[in-house]
Specification:
single chain, about 230 residues, alpha+beta, Mago nashi protein, 3 helices, about 25% helix, about 30% strand
Length: about 230
Amino acid sequence: MQRLVLRLLLSTTVLLLVAGGAAAQPVGVSSPPWMKLHDVHTTAAGPALTRFVDQDLFLARDGTLISLTVAADLVNGGGFTSTEIAGIASPDALASLGAVLFESRIGKLAGSCTTQLMPLGSSFSIGISWYGSGSRSGQSSHFTITNEGSAAGTCSPQELAVLFALEAIQTSVIADPGSSITSSPCERDSQCPNPLVCCAPCGVPLPAPCPKVCSRPGQAGKCPLVP
């Protein structure tokens, strides 16, 4: 019951952040919705729960991408960290996603399916929505990938391909130096959405105050060197 209440509270918090923060982002007349993803998962390592993540991702047809994530390290503590990513996906990345959506027949995908994407003992529910081939089509579809409850059947390669394509387009936006990444203070990488790392933006040794924040990784996936 406590986990259910926590999940509901965090989902409400993220939705409020989307409603309040989106106005400051580059969403305009050329940005009709294309895709949305809502991912809530708890990672396990053996009998222990190690990490909680609640993420909302919005992608417009012009490539505008906004992601809001709340994450927590359930082993070491440190509280929840919120991270916002905002940027524009490249034409090549959008074309790759479009090809996957076409091949998967995205308009026909619906309901819930089950698969194992995470270590044994973990739980996840990933909802994916598609808002048609154009702003006036009125067509949409929604499906959920999960390992909870009694899903209708095993996830198809098409459903998983859409998920992986959305993850790839977010990774490409994160890698773009022109994208904006902001977060509340963090203590560990596990409080940041993948593949971000928890780093001090003002270098080492740390001047005071200089709280660590979720940042774009440097070489070898580590904190970037700051002069």
